[in-house]
């Protein structure tokens, strides 16, 4: 008989009981020093300004800043395209395309007309030539014209006048007739001025080297008044004190043109601008930097002030006046001349210069305040104006049966009329 096998008993290792977690340790509170540091940090955080939501004013400022930046970028990018109208000094000048060849001046002594950059040389030349006719007047003109520092000129002239006064008041005292050239006052106030030595020689002084009393073989240079020259010193002193700088006069370069649709088109030479081409380029770069300053909202008054600063870039203005018959009168002016100078210029060209008239600026507004400067009226650097007779006077002439005036300008001006290209 077979045996039933006993099942195999497998011994299992007894399960280990899970270890209990150790009792939690007691946490210690922050020290007094830590609590004080935390309180200080919290106080600092509370003091920082909290960001505020953007207001409508912020939105406006941001928009203004964006527009100004866009404008500056567009200006830099389009400078080459827009140079014809806004920055003519940066382009090559084609004489055949210019509205006027340059700015010219007339010498009041000789009547010679020269370009702007030649005027100082022409004035000096004229003064030297005038010395052959009147050496005292020429020396006075040279002192007042050829020395730029007006304060030094004033001090030097007053010192010379004092020398002459002393001689005139003490004619018998020989010491006043001699002026030591090495004298400190003479060197600092008179010797440094152009024309002063010519003045002394012209009024009757001559240079002399005299011995120094008590010093053997020592000599000093003096101006000594010659005999017979005392009587005219007072007159010469008055001429010196009343002298004024001799200035070249701006030539209007009057032109008359036939009626033309090109009347409002201007091409100006670099003479019209007070800054060089390099300075103009620098101005363009500075416009970008100015955006930061313009981030605040600009008022109308602020914009107008900025526009006036821009106008200071121009020294001259080329103006055209269109008459009822279509003829065009052109002239050159200082940018800061008053409107009255423009009215006087036009009046001198009229056949009937006794009749009242009006000048209308671009846009149609009348130039009524003749004391205003041309640049303040927006007429710089160039503008086309319209001439109109006073309406009431014309109505009276018409009512009285007066003849219609065919031509406004003087006939001799129309003989030299040109074609505006």
What does this protein look like?
Helix content is 38%, strand content 13%. With 421 residues, the chain is α+β, with helices and mostly antiparallel strands. A hairpin with a 6-residue loop joins strand 1 (104-106) and strand 2. The longest helix is centred in the N-terminal third of the chain and has 22 residues, at 56-77.
Total of helices: 14
Query: What is the H/E order?
Result: HHHEEHHHEHHEEHEEHHEEHEEHH
Q: How large is the share of residues in beta strands?
A: 5-15%
The oligomeric state of the chains shown is single chain
Q: Helix proportion of residues, in percent?
A: 25-40%
Q: Structural class, judged by helices and strands?
A: alpha+beta
Q: How far is the first residue's CA from the last residue's CA?
A: 144 Å
Mean pLDDT: 81
**Computed Rg:** 43 Å
**In total, how many beta strands?**
11
**Net shape:** flat
What about the largest sheet? 5 strands, mixed
Subcellular location: Membrane
Protein name: UBX domain-containing protein 6
Biased composition (Basic and acidic residues): 8-24
Organism: Podarcis lilfordi (Lilford's wall lizard)
List keywords for this structure.
421 residues; alpha+beta; 5-stranded mixed sheet; 13% strand
Topology (elements, then pairings):
Elements: H1 32-47, H2 56-77, H3 79-82, E1 104-106, E2 113-115, H4 119-130, H5 135-145, H6 150-169, E3 178-180, H7 184-191, H8 196-203, E4 205-211, E5 219-225, H9 233-241, E6 249-250, E7 255-257, H10 277-293, H11 300-311, E8 316-322, E9 328-334, H12 339-347, E10 357-360, E11 382-389, H13 391-399, H14 411-414
Parallel strand pairs: 8-11
Antiparallel strand pairs: 1-2, 1-6, 3-5, 4-5, 7-9, 8-9, 10-11
């Amino acid at each position: 008989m077979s045996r039933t096998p006993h099942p195999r008993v497998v011994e299992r290792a007894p399960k280990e009981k899970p270890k209990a977690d150790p009792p939690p340790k007691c946490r210690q509170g922050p020290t007094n020093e830590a609590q004080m540091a935390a309180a200080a940090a919290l106080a600092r955080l509370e003091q920082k300004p909290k960001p505020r939501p953007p207001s409508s004013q912020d939105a406006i400022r941001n928009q203004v800043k964006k527009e100004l930046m866009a404008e500056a970028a567009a200006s830099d990018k389009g400078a080459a395209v827009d140079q014809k109208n806004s920055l003519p000094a940066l382009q090559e000048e084609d004489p055949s395309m210019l509205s006027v060849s340059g700015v010219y001046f007339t010498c009041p002594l000789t009547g010679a007309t020269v370009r702007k950059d030649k005027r100082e040389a022409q004035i000096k030349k004229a003064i030297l030539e005038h010395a052959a006719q009147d050496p005292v007047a020429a020396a006075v003109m040279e002192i007042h014209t050829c020395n730029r520092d007006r304060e030094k000129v004033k001090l030097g002239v007053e010192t010379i006048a004092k020398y002459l006064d002393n001689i005139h008041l003490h004619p018998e005292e020989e010491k006043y007739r001699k002026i030591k050239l090495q004298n400190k006052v003479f060197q600092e106030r008179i010797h440094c001025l152009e024309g002063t030595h010519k003045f002394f020689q012209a009024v009757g002084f001559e240079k002399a080297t005299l011995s120094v009393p008590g010093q053997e073989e020592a000599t000093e240079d003096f101006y000594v008044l010659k005999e017979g020259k005392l009587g005219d010193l007072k007159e010469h002193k008055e001429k010196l004190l009343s002298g004024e700088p001799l200035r070249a006069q701006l030539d209007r370069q009057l032109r008359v043109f036939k009626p033309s649709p090109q009347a409002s088109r201007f091409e100006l030479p670099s003479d019209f601008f007070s800054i060089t081409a390099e300075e103009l380029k620098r101005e363009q770069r500075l416009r970008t930097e100015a955006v930061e300053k313009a981030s605040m909202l600009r008022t109308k008054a602020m914009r107008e002030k900025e526009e006036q600063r821009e106008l200071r870039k121009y020294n001259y203005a080329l103006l055209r006046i269109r008459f009822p018959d279509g003829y065009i009168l052109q002239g050159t002016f200082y940018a800061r001349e008053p409107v009255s100078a423009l009215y006087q210029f036009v009046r001198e060209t009229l056949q009937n210069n006794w009749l009242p008239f009006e000048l209308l600026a671009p846009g149609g507004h009348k130039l009524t305040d003749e004391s205003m400067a041309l640049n303040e009226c927006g007429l710089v650097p160039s503008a086309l104006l319209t001439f109109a007779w006073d309406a009431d006077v014309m109505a009276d002439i018409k009512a009285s049966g007066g003849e219609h005036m065919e031509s406004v300008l003087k006939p001799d001006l129309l003989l030299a009329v040109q074609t505006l290209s």
